[in-house]
């Protein structure tokens, strides 16, 4: 759950930036404050709809794989990815306040920008998730230690059984196993 949430939030922020850049770079696409809602739609479509569409289209294209050359297969795969990006972009435009003028400049070119942006995101995503997981893990460990020390009872004198139990927890060996290992 944590990794999924991290991925969704990082993709959302990335999509906001990409949508704002598309709005700034292209005069035919007006994004503005609608980038916040459009990014929600784009993120949900990317996480849920895009994999399903790719699977369906690749399954349909796989039926004629034998009749294509290697280059032809690559072209078909790229066209399928573009068609999926186009569908995601059209849904984002229809379900948000993003305003598009012109067929080519407003509907064909932005999916290419999204495709390039998602290639970049894919390169950064794994490192971002790992770093975020490390930060969350270290903060959780610190908070857990603070909570444990605050709720821990006062230190009582340890008995020999407690010492044996702690030794066992440290190395996973019982006293008999430890003694046999020492004799070897």
* SSE pattern: HEHHEHHH
Give the integer mean of the pLDDT values: 81
The total beta strand count reads 2
Main sheet specs: 2 strands, antiparallel
Give the termini distance in whole angstroms. Answer: 47 Å
General form: elongated
**Uncertain residue segments:** none
Category from helices, strands and their pairing = mainly alpha
Q: How many helices?
A: 6
Report the C-alpha radius of gyration, rounded: 27 Å
Helix content: over 70%
How much of the residues is beta strand, in percent? under 5%
The quaternary structure here is single chain
- The side-by-side strand order for the widest beta sheet comes to 1-2
Task: Give an overview in words.
This protein is an all-alpha fold and about 180 residues long. About 80% of the residues lie in helices and about 0% in strands. It is built from six helices and two strands; from the N terminus they run H-E-H-H-E-H-H-H. The protein has a two-stranded antiparallel ribbon with strand order 1-2. The protein is elongated. The model has no long low-confidence stretch (mean pLDDT about 80).
